[in-house]
Write a structure and sequence with these properties.
It comes from Streptomyces cinnamoneus. GO terms for molecular function: FAD binding; FMN binding; NADP binding; NADPH dehydrogenase activity. Residues 5-322 form the FAD-binding domain. The protein is of the alpha/beta class. The chain has two domains: 5-334, FAD/NAD(P)-binding domain, CATH 3.50.50; 343-732, TIM Barrel (Alpha-Beta Barrel). It is 38% helix and 20% strand. The strands form six sheets. Strands 5, 6, 10, 11, 12, 13, 14 and 15 form an eight-stranded mixed β-sheet that branches. α16 (418-429) links the parallel β20 (401-403) and β21. α3 (62-71) packs antiparallel against α4 (99-113) and α22 packs across α23.
């Protein structure tokens, strides 16, 4: 028997359920739960559990599952109330019950099984308990003493966020999960509410810290808080009072631990991880942790190995949930950027905020709701949002799909060859609205590698003309754009598959940059800080390449000011340490990139659009922020940029990106709303469902996809076929029309 004697620190749902399962699976176990509060002490009101979680409970312990099932209230609808409209979306399948009642059920189950429950008793430290127990489960919550005592092992990161919230309750049952927005004289407040019994509902009121202070809620006692919240959400309450349970305003904190176990001590639930209440219940994650932990203890003879297997199973699930929760909480933190959308699009934006609920998923749940959103957005019936046209200056793209710039490292002395013709031509035939070249360099010394493409010699222009002619003749309706750039301090390296960012073994050329700072200290070459005369020469190089690009027949030009290359190096405070007119505060750091943009725009044909790619954050302390990115985007728009291609990072090697599904999209969304300029979203957008969701929610105007187009050059055509769309937003080459229906996967005899 693994773990014959077990101590559980914390008598919340996760700790109690783990104790009950351990005892149920082997009655010989000695299991003790320490809880410093009384049995009927609890904070908050309702607990939401998904159908998936309830199914897991049924398998793990049918008795607990049946007890919860008898008492849980269920509903399918989500209501969104904003600016006088109340919109309802169905098919969401929620279940909830009171937290107090859940604890009672778990207490009863533990007693029936023979678990020892010690209430009003502070648990001994884990380091002491482990001397007399085979296993110590630390389920002691977000403020875990165990985690704090062993922080050198667990290595926690606690991230507080920007909103204040409070758990309240109403003495009546809602019939839906309700989101309500109140635009007050103090700022925006939001309400999250749901039923947890036939006679009561949880009510969470949340707002930005500054709104909370302006409203005077930081100075209110309990009764004043109830009156203030009731006033701001009087439509829901209709004169009925709110109540508290020792409720206090608090700031949500995301908890992440590098390790979840230490010897025979393991973290569970909020002690190990937290996820914002707007997407899921911490109780849900905690009981799922308990199920996995006990399963591995039963399967694995040694406790440390069982704890490692538990973490290996649960960590990816938790990290995925935390990514979605972070997207959700940041959406609410930035609610001011969203409230101006029309009612149905606002509701759609809210429902898809975590990027887990999507256009297609929502259509399956409530087709009528999605149809109403599309109608409000002016999308023709039967047309997926991704296949609507978009106009940039004199260029109309037939759909919203862009083949993202991807370096191929296959040019010879800067000249693109057959590979580029086939690579770009194949993707143009695949149906996107716009195909972008890789970064095309404005000089030989501006290349990243010796195999990078250029536009600084007559033979380059002729070779690119061969590519653009093919696209225009063989893929009519697909536009082709060129991305112009200069590698700066990231140049003179090997091709990616030979050693990314590694200097050439021989034949290195001198590098230039905003400041004399190597990209990788001790590895990369130290660049020369550009002089005023050299800056003037660079402006001319960009302008000459732009003229060549126009003659080569490109439909759109993008200026590369991202990813730590030359122009990006001027924008970031981490890479620009100049003390002249091109360094210092953001307006000065913007000066040279804007001069280059102006020089290019002056020679680029007036009817053809010009975009700029930026890194909206450096993902590093002291670097470019989201607020800076709005300023940068607005400046380029004021100088004539028709759209901003919003990427992030790759500016400094010690960056820490928050990767996840379409993780860069919030930066594009913010720029679109605040700077009022069209945007191209990029980064981990992998499905046509993602594209439809982002376009319909109003978070972006175009979506750029890289890796999906490497996997499938016909990605856009296949997206049309899978959605049974054959309208003007997509063009099947006549040679490919026989393949415009998805082939059957098997045949019946």
């Amino acid at each position: 028997m693994t773990a014959a004697r077990v101590a559980v620190i914390g008598g919340g749902p996760g700790g109690l359920y783990a104790a009950a399962l351990l005892k149920r699976h082997d009655r010989r176990r000695d299991v003790t739960v320490w809880e410093r509060n009384a049995p009927d002490d609890t904070f908050g009101f309702g607990v939401v559990l998904s159908d998936e979680t309830l199914g897991g409970l049924e398998t793990a312990d049918p008795a607990v599952s049946a007890a919860i099932g008898e008492e849980a209230v269920r509903w399918d609808d989500i209501e969104v109330v904003h600016r006088g409209s109340r919109l309802v979306s169905g098919g969401h399948a929620f279940a909830a019950l009171g937290r107090h009642r859940l604890l009672e059920l778990l207490h009863e189950r533990c007693r029936t099984l023979g678990v020892t429950l010690r209430f009003r008793t502070e648990a001994p430290p884990a380091a002491e308990l482990v001397r007399s127990h085979d296993l110590v489960i630390a389920a002691d919550g977000v403020h875990s003493r165990t985690r704090r005592s062993h922080r050198d092992v667990f290595r926690p990161t606690l991230t507080p966020h920007r909103c204040r919230y409070i758990w309240l309750a109403a003495g009546f049952a809602l019939d839906a999960f309700r989101f309500e927005i109140a635009e007050t004289e103090h700022g925006i407040m939001q309400l999250h509410a749901y039923p947890f019994s036939p006679r009561a509902s949880t009510v969470i009121v949340e707002m930005r810290e500054e709104v909370w202070r302006r409203a005077g809620l930081d100075r209110c006692d309990e009764e004043e808080t109830l009156r203030s919240c009731g006033k701001h959400f009087s439509g829901l309450l209709d004169g009925r009072p709110l109540r508290t349970n020792r409720s206090a305003w608090t700031v949500f904190c995301t908890v992440v631990n590098e390790r979840w176990s230490h010897g025979r001590t393991v973290l569970l639930g909020d002690a190990a991880h937290t996820a914002h209440f707007s997407i899921g219940s911490g109780t849900k994650l905690a009981v799922e942790d308990a199920v996995a932990l006990v399963r591995h203890l039963d399967r694995t003879p040694a406790v440390p190995e069982a704890l490692a297997a538990y973490e290996a199973e649960r960590r990816p699930v938790v990290e995925s949930t935390q990514r979605a929760a972070r997207a959700s909480l940041e959406w609410f933190e930035d609610l001011a950027h969203h409230v101006g959308r029309p009612p149905h699009r606002f509701a759609f934006d809210l429902l898809t905020r975590s990027r887990r609920v999507t256009h297609d998923n929502l259509r399956l749940r409530d087709a009528g709701f999605v149809t109403a959103v599309e109608k409000e957005a002016g999308i023709p019936a039967g047309t997926p949002p991704m296949f609507t046209p978009f106009r940039l200056r004199g260029l109309t793209l037939r759909n919203r799909v862009v083949v993202s710039p991807m370096d191929m490292y296959s040019a010879v002395d800067g000249t693109p060859g057959d590979f580029h013709l086939v690579h770009l031509g194949a993707r143009a035939l695949g149906g996107p609205g716009l195909v972008m070249t890789e970064m095309v360099c404005v000089s030989a010394h501006g290349r990243i590698t010796p195999a990078c493409a250029g536009l600084y010699a007559p033979e380059h222009e002729r070779a690119w003309r061969r590519v653009t002619d093919f696209v225009h003749q063989q893929a009519p309706g697909t536009a082709i754009g060129v991305q112009l750039g200069h590698s700066g301090r990231k140049g003179s390296t090997r091709r990616m598959w030979e050693g990314i960012d590694q200097p050439l073994p021989e034949g290195n050329w001198p590098l230039v940059a905003a400041s004399a700072l190597p990209y990788r200290p001790g590895v990369s070459q130290t660049p020369h800080a550009l002089t005023p005369g050299e800056l003037a020469d660079l402006r001319e190089q960009f302008a000459r390449s732009a003229q060549a690009a126009a003659r080569a027949g490109f439909d759109l030009l993008e200026l590369h000011c991202a990813h730590g290359y030359l122009l990006s190096g001027f924008l970031s405070p981490l890479t620009n340490h100049r003390d002249d007119a091109y360094g210092g505060d953001l307006p000065r750091r913007l000066a040279f990139p804007l001069e280059v943009f102006d020089a290019v725009r002056a020679v680029w044909p007036a009817e053809r659009p010009m975009t700029v790619r930026i890194s909206a954050t450096d993902w590093a302390e002291g670097g470019t922020t989201a607020e800076d990115a709005v300023t940068v985007a607005r400046a380029f728009a004021d100088h004539g940029a028709d759209a901003v291609d919003v990427s992030t990072g790759q500016v400094v090697p010690d960056e820490r990106p928050a990767y996840g599904r379409s993780y860069q999209t919030p930066f594009a969304d913010r720029i679109r709303q605040e700077a009022g300029v069209p945007v191209i979203a990029v980064g981990a957008i992998s499905s046509w469902d993602d594209v439809n969701s982002l376009i319909l929610a109003g978070r972006t105007d175009l979506c750029a996809l890289g890796r999906p187009h490497l996997y499938d050059p016909n990605w856009t055509l296949h997206a049309a076929a899978e959605q049974e769309y054959s309208g003007p937003g997509v063009h099947w080459p006549v040679q490919y029309r026989a393949g415009s229906r998805k082939p059957p996967t098997g045949r019946k005899a």
